[in-house]
Every structure is written in C-alpha cells, then in structure tokens.
C-alpha cells in the first residue's frame, strides 16, 4: 500500500510504500526453492544442495530482488492511481520507524511540469535569408583552384613561366632552416631544418614571415622575435628571442587555369564550364539552405523559451548533463585525444542540458496539441533530400530504413521542422538579409 502523495516543492513529491514482512519472506522462500532445483555446490548433485547452503549462497541477492520488485510495483501502481507523470526514477529509502511486521520505504521523486505555451501571435521571430550570386561561385572556384595548387622553383623557366623575381613573397612556399636563442642560449622547439610553410597563410608568427619576405635562396637573416604573453609554449611566452633564418628553397604557386581540364578534375566528364558553375551553385545553395534552416530554427527555439515559463525536473537536467558529458568524451576520443584521466564534470553541461530539456518539453506539448508528428511521407522526403548529394540515392534510403534508430533521428528532424513551420505561421516574422560570407562563417547549434 502507499500513503497519500506529499508535495515537497514545485515538482518534488514523496509517498510512503508499505507491505507486510510476511509477503517478502513468502516470496523469498518461493524463489529459493526454485533456485534450489538447479543450484550447484561441490560434493552435491545439481538440485540436491541443502536449503541452508542455497540460502547462504543466494539468499541476499534474492531478497534484494524481491524488495526491488515489490517496491517498484507498488510505486508504479500508486503513481498510476494518482495519475502522476513521474520524471526519471524515484529515490527509495527505508524507513526506520516501520510498524512491527511491516516494511516501509519513502519514495521521493519529481513529476513532469505542466507546459503552457504562451501566445505565439505576439511573438516576434527574426528569420534570415541569403542569396548565392556569381561572386560566391567565383570565390568557390578560387578555393578549388587553391586546393589544386602546385609549386615550381621560383626564377627557373618552365612550361608555366618562372614565377617572377626570385625573392620570397606572400603566396610563395619556402623551405628554411632556423635557430632561435634567448640570452644567447638555444631553447627547446626553437630550431628546425628543412621546415616548409607558405608565406601569408599565418602559420608562423608575423615577425617570422616578415623576416622571410625579400630573401633569396641561400640568404640568411637574423632578427628579434617577441613571443606573445599567451603563446602556447610557456617557456618562451612573453620573451624575446633572436632568430637566424636561412632560405634553402623558394617556390612559387601555380594555380590551375579555369578550363576544361579543371572542370574535368571536378567530375565534369565533358569539361563543360557552365555545367561546372551550375553544379557549384546547386551545392552552395544546398549548404546555404541548410545553414539558414538551422539559424531560423534556433530563432524559433529562442522565441519558444521566452514565451513559455516552466520548471524543469532536476533529475532530467542531471540525466541530460551526463549524456552530454559522455557524448563529449566519445567525440574527443574519436578525434584521437586521450580522455582516460580527463574529468568531465556534469555541471559544465548543466546550462545546455536545461535548455535542451525545456525545449523537449515544449516541443512535446506543441506536437501533441497540434498534431505535428512526423508523417511517413515527410520522413521519406527528408531522406531523399539527403540522398541527393550521394552517388547512389537508393543506398541512402536503404541505410535509413534498415535501422529503426536511424529512422528515428530523421523523424526527430522532421518533427522539429514541423514545429518551426507552425510557430512561423503564428508569429510575427521579420526577415533579414545576411551576407553569404557571414552566413558561411557562422557557427550555429541546432
């Protein structure tokens, strides 16, 4: 039996669960007898082990299982009778003042909050839009050209020219020997032979690159270099070193011409430049659409949080914090980082977890109230959209439909999109133009 539910806080509740001790003993004896039929012990045939030995070996675990089963069943029955939506798992503690012949436990737990979404008609949501123009296509082609760059010795005549005057300039690839000293003494990491980098890419400190520019192959230069206070090398951070650099090899960058061969290198079998530009535009538009969708979804989620006030069960925040910590650990491990002894305090993820839990509760309420569940045709359409960027779209469909968990991920995406469209259909929407570069350089979180 269970006592009336006691309210401890906004979402915290408590009830006392009690049952006769004889019920526990009867069930324990029943399970011990069942266990005895197959129990094994040295010197005895299976099923012939004395009950005292069976009880000594299995009694504690069986009694624990019986108590867990009875308490769990009694709690669930009481929760159903009182129409409680329990969040997480209850905290069960034995009562020391139980009546004689009775076992009593206090079950402390949290319930789901009531979610009342505010008036969406009064919500203002700023959405964004961005266009892909010829300028963006040209920039993308330039990036693709740089990815296919090849280098030639500067000053030596070749099929593509000589690269101009044989002195180091931005864009050139240089190979150098260098040695650095602080107070006349070499320091760890301050020396290298045959070190290669491209001038202007920012891989080296500005003073280092500035000293290299203007050198010819075989020339050396000595210069001071002040390490920043926040430099990653703590031994030299904030100190000034004297470097001597020797330019050993100087190469100029030859970018491929935008011609049929270049188009073929991008997969255009016939080398059609117009088709190449068209394909680049389609891919850019797909990327832009995805980022716009993510940004607009985030704006809608922010609006929902502002218009809806609700208390969140602490147990749900804790559980999601643990999930986020584990996801972070796994992600870092997959990147090759050693995370064995690295702490992942769940409180670091609490703020993000609370936001996620709140949005989950709000979305669940909106979906239920407005029939926004993901329809099968929407799920299929979403997968087909993903499949467009793959060589074999049918394999992509098979990949998702062959695994229920993968399909559930797509259903969740569609459900969120349904909520976003529903909110945008109700709210006051203000559209804002965003520059392509700003959009592509932004980091959004879904």
Automatic annotation (TrEMBL):
Keywords: Cell cycle, Cell division, Chaperone, Cytoplasm, Isomerase, Rotamase. It is found in: Cytoplasm. The keyword Chaperone applies. It catalyses: [protein]-peptidylproline (omega=180) = [protein]-peptidylproline (omega=0). It comes from the Bacteria. Gene3D superfamilies: 3.10.50.40, Trigger factor ribosome-binding domain, Trigger factor, C-terminal domain. InterPro entries: PPIase_dom_sf, PPIase_FKBP_dom, Trig_fac, Trigger_fac_C, Trigger_fac_C_sf, Trigger_fac_ribosome-bd_bac, Trigger_fac_ribosome-bd_sf, Trigger_fact/SurA_dom_sf. SUPFAM superfamilies: FKBP-like (SSF54534), Triger factor/SurA peptide-binding domain-like (SSF109998), Trigger factor ribosome-binding domain (SSF102735). PROSITE patterns: FKBP_PPIASE. It is an enzyme of class 5 (isomerase). The keyword Signal does not apply. Its EC number is 5.2.1.8. GO terms for molecular function: peptidyl-prolyl cis-trans isomerase activity. PANTHER family: TRIGGER FACTOR CHAPERONE AND PEPTIDYL-PROLYL CIS/TRANS ISOMERASE, TRIGGER FACTOR-LIKE PROTEIN TIG, CHLOROPLASTIC. Consists of 3 domains; the N-terminus binds the ribosome, the middle domain has PPIase activity, while the C-terminus has intrinsic chaperone activity on its own. Belongs to the FKBP-type PPIase family. Tig subfamily. This is Trigger factor. It comes from Massilia soli. The lineage of its organism: Bacteria, Pseudomonadati, Pseudomonadota, Betaproteobacteria, Burkholderiales.
């Amino acid at each position: 039996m269970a006592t009336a539910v006691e309210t401890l806080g906004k979402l915290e509740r408590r009830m006392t669960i009690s049952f006769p001790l004889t019920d526990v003993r009867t069930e324990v004896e029943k399970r011990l007898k069942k266990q005895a039929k197959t129990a094994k012990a040295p010197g005895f045939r299976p099923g012939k082990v004395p009950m005292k030995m069976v009880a000594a070996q299995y009694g504690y675990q069986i009694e624990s299982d019986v108590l867990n089963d009875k308490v769990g069943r009694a709690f669930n029955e009481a929760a159903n009778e009182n129409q409680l939506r329990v969040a997480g798992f209850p905290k069960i503690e034995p009562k020391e003042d139980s009546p004689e012949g009775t076992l009593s436990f206090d079950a402390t737990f949290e319930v789901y909050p009531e979610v009342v979404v505010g008036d969406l008609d009064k919500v203002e949501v700023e959405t964004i839009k961005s266009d892909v123009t010829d300028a963006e296509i040209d920039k993308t082609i330039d990036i693709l050209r740089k990815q296919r760059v090849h280098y030639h010795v500067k000053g030596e005549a070749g099929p593509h020219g000589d690269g101009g005057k044989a002195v180091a300039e931005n864009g050139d690839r240089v190979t150098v020997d260098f040695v650095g000293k602080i107070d006349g003494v070499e320091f760890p990491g301050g020396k290298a032979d045959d070190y290669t980098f491209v001038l202007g890419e920012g891989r080296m400190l500005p003073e280092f690159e500035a000293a290299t520019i203007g050198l010819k192959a075989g020339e050396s230069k000595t210069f001071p270099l002040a390490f920043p206070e926040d430099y990653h090398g703590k031994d030299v951070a904030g100190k000034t070193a004297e470097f001597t650099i020797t330019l050993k090899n100087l190469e100029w960058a030859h970018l491929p011409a935008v011609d049929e061969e270049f188009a073929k290198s991008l997969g255009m079998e016939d080398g059609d430049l117009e088709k190449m530009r068209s394909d680049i535009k389609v891919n850019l538009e797909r990327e832009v659409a995805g980022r716009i969708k993510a940004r607009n979804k985030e704006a809608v989620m922010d609006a929902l949080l502002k218009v809806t006030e609700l208390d969140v069960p602490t147990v749900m925040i804790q559980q999601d914090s643990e999930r986020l910590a584990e996801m972070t650990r796994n992600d870092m491990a997959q990147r090759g980082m050693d995370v064995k002894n690295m702490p992942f305090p769940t409180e670091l993820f609490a703020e993000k977890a609370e936001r996620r839990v709140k949005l989950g509760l709000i979305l669940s309420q909106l979906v239920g109230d407005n029939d926004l569940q993901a329809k099968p045709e929407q799920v299929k359409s979403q997968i087909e959209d993903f499949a467009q960027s793959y060589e074999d779209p049918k394999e992509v469909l098979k990949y998702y439909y062959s695994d229920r968990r993968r399909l559930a991920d797509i259903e969740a995406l569609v459900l969120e999109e349904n909520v976003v469209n529903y909110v945008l259909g109700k709210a006051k929407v203000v559209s804002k133009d965003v520059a392509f570069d700003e959009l592509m350089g932004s980091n959004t979180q879904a």
